[in-house]
Amino acid sequence: MAMERTWILLSKGGRGLLVAAAVTFLLLGFSLRPSVPTSSRQEEAPGALLQEAVQQQEDRTLSRALQDVGKSTVRYAARISGRIARPDVWSDWQPHLRMPETREYYGVLVAPGEVLAYGLGLSDDPEVQVQFNDGPAVWGRITSRFLSSGLVQIIANGASDRQPPRIAARGGRAGDAVVATAPGLEGPIIAPLFLSSSGASISATTTPLDDFRGLPVFSPERELLGIVGDVEGKARIISIDAAMIPSSTPATIPRRIGLSLGSRTEPANGPSGVIVTGVEPDGLAARAGILADDLLLQIDEETVVDVAQAASTLTAPDAPDLQLNIRRGLSGVTLLTVAMPGTERIEP
Amino acid sequence: MNQILSVGLILLAALAAGHVAQRIRLPEVTGYLLIGVLIGPAAFDVITHDNLEALQLLSEVALGLILFGIGTIFEASTFLQIGRRVAFITLIEAFAACTLVVIAMMFAGMPAAVAMLLGVVAMETAPATTLMIVREYDTRGPLTDTLLALLAMNNMLVLLTFGVVAAGLTLSTGGFASLYFSVHGLVWSVGGAVALGVLAGLLLEAWSPRVESGSEAMMLAIGTVLLTVGAARALGVSPLIAALTVGGVIANVSGHAAGLVEELRRADPPLYAVFFVLAGAELPIALLPQIGLTGLLYVVARSAGKIGGAWWAGQRANMSQLVQRKLGLCLLSSSSLAIGLTLQVRQQFPHLADQLSAVVLSSVIVFEIVGPILARMALRQAGEVTIVPTGGALPVTQPNA
Predict the structure, then answer these.
(1) Which pLDDT score is estimated for A237?
(2) What pLDDT score was predicted for residue B95?
(3) Helix (H) and strand (E) counts for chain A?
(4) Which site in A111, A149, B47, B360 is 20 to 30 Å from B299, CA atoms measured?
């Protein structure tokens, strides 16, 4: 049956009508389209501290770490409530912005009155509510957005007297704290914290600290349990030689024997073990005769598998004297005894 | 690998895979998909994720041309002949698949919201894969006519239903304030796409009498389709419906539609090959072992809904016995739109996305491999295949012969 294509008008007038209807619909629909202004979305130059954090490769992991800290009870953590931009109901699987709703994010103080938070999805509205863990809620303003990482920098109104934990990005010192991450891991690792009186350097094996980021991990009793470290993009549990304790947070160090440990970097053909990367001159380990570069094989006849396991055993608060099997250079295995005093408490 | 190298490799790999597929009596499109899997990130990683991302443009262009081609089937005379019956069959087969999937997923312990979204995704039949079979075997007949018309309606119906379900879910969580945004999104996405398609189609029609050669016609058609898809993206309307509409308008108001489509068909095989190899490379094969009982239930429920629904509706619509029995087998392919809807769910309902993605992505692998084979089988049994590919070499021209 020939319809002569009369189904849709062929006359010039009819086509004009069709074009007019289509254009009207498009104009009307577009003008009524819900949208959120995007002009304020921009990359702003972050402060030196943030720049260092944001330029690292594992920013998203850092974001997760921030949430972990934010959910803890430490006083420098905050909950951020802000309006979010969510995709609208469109059928072309492209994101569109729709009426914002509120969502809660987490962050930490990184400068007086200044919060670094994970804020991916926050709308362009710069006003957010900042609820510090131990204080009332205040209004804050987003001053920088880091689109690659989803982080936002927020200035909290009337909170300039709130001091953050100090950040030790290079050469930490007693009283410093570090925000850090453990790439590839779902949550923070609990690593024992080693202290030294020198506090001059922080290093894992021979790696300089330039890329170090660590997350302080607290017990429910607000004891500082340890630090998760990230050195040059690799997750490490780092034995550090400087205190990394938030100034306001008294921390109990379960045990300190004065040595730092590191994973073996060469493929291990022989027995498993961890490397002693440093020995505190007057510490218990030094007194027992342990030297740097010793290979720690066994602790109390238990084979050492990795740094975490070794550190956990070495720092157990109620540990008696420890029998360590070590290998030094090409010599055979040596048995050393580390005499253990009581648990030491470090005051900030 | 740089992008030019990857495109070259994809084309040659597709050529070889197409020949091999024909030799072992599989559809070419299955060969394309399988070679895509082999050289993609899931296997040998010759085509990397970066390549896939960079070549997404080609996929979108190909999909636009495919839907334009399907749209040209919507000629008023044909539509009035079979349109109502096809619309009825489309509704029944799609909602039968949807209903069975919802029931099966709730039986498997899925939350109602996830089950409903899975039901909507299950309604979809992949236009590109199915059209490729039709073209490869140059199938002609009532089953082919019904199938092609159904493809266009099916995709439009899926987009509409997804919009309605998503609006309902948004309302249930977002309150009455979300109603305006949801309704506007739905109307704008579909209505805006149709309006855009009408404008682009009329532009194409107005220009077509002025073209003087086949190559000019090809440039006009491809340019218009790309313009439409790009404008649709910019406006936030559905590029699929917009491209379909351009084809539909051209089929009905232009005397040059057949010529344009013919010129387009000469140009698009490389694009189609790239499209399907990339689709294969993007298939998340690693998920296949995780398909599990829920995934199997989904596959069975969707297949039963499509085949059973098409059969029952075909009977009611007084379609021929052949169409009744074979149509459902041609409707099982599922790919780009299903994955697109999954991405949409991830953006819109992130808390529901993980469960939905695992089922959809693993089942897409099954449907995308098995679907074309069943479609070819059905079309062949219906006696509508006019070309039997042999995988032979190009004819050799003898010099001075």
Answers:
(1) 36
(2) 94
(3) 5, 19
(4) B47
Q: pLDDT tens for residues B5-43?
A: 888 999 999 999 988 988 887 888 888 888 988 888 878
CATH of the domain at B72: 1.20.1530.20
Tell me the C-alpha distance between B238 and A94, whole Å.
9
Q: Which residues of chain B from 212 to 251 reach within 8 Å of chain A, CB to CB?
A: 232-233, 235-240, 249
User: SS3 helix, strand, coil % of chain A, rounded to 5?
Assistant: 15, 30, 55
- Please state, in angstroms and rounded to a whole number, the distance separating the CA atoms of residues A109 and A75: 9
- How far lies A77's CA from each of A163, A239, B44, in Å? 11, 25, 46
> B344 and A34: CB-CB below 8 Å?
no
Provide the whole-model pTM. 0.54
Domain count, chain B: 1
Do the Cβ atoms of A91 and A101 come closer than 8 Å? Answer: no
Choose the CATH number for A166-346 among 2.30.42.10, 3.30.70.100, 3.40.50.720, 3.40.980.10: 2.30.42.10
- Which pLDDT does position A222 carry in this prediction? 40
> Encoding tokens for residue A329?
């250079």
Check if B181 contacts A (Cβ < 8 Å). yes
CB B266 within 8 A of CB B65: no
Residue A271 near residue A325, CB atoms below 8 Å: no
Closest residue of B to A98, CA-based? B181
Nearest CA of chain B to the CA of A119: how many Å?
16
The domain segmentation of chain A, as residue ranges, is 48-156, 166-346
Place of tokens 């920088």: A144
pLDDT for res A178: 40
Q: What is the pLDDT of residues B212-221, one digit of tens each?
A: 777 888 888 8
Least Cα distance to B17 among B215, B274, B334 occurs for B274
What does the pLDDT average to over B316-323?
Answer: 88
Whether residue B163 and residue A91 make contact (CB cut-off 8 A), yes or no, is yes
Task: Quote the CA–CA distance of A246 and A218 in Å, as a whole number.
Answer: 11
pLDDT at position B204 over 60:
yes
Burial class (CB in 10 A: 0-12, 13-18, 19+), B387: exposed
Contact by Cβ (8 Å): B238, B344: no
Beta bridge partners of A299: A302, A324
Q: Give tens-digit pLDDT for B242-295.
A: 888 898 888 888 777 777 777 777 777 888 888 888 878 877 676 666 667 888
Residues of chain A with pLDDT under 70: 1-12, 33-77, 84-101, 110-112, 133-134, 136, 146-151, 163-256, 258, 260-271, 306-309, 311-312, 315-319, 330-333, 340-348
- For the residues of A258-288, what is the DSSP string, one character each? SEEEE---S---S---EEEEEE-TTSHHHHH
Higher confidence at residue A172 or residue B66?
B66
Q: Which residue has the tokens 């809904």?
A: B305
- Residue in chain B closest to A86 (alpha carbons) equals B348
What superfamily would CATH give domain A48-156? Trypsin-like serine proteases (2.40.10.10)
Phi, then psi, of A179 in degrees rounded to 5:
-95, 125
Nearest to B125 by CA among B147, B144, B151: B151
Chain A residues lying within 8 Å of B232, measured CB to CB: 92
pLDDT of residue A163: 64
| Closest chain A residue to B252, measured at CA | A5
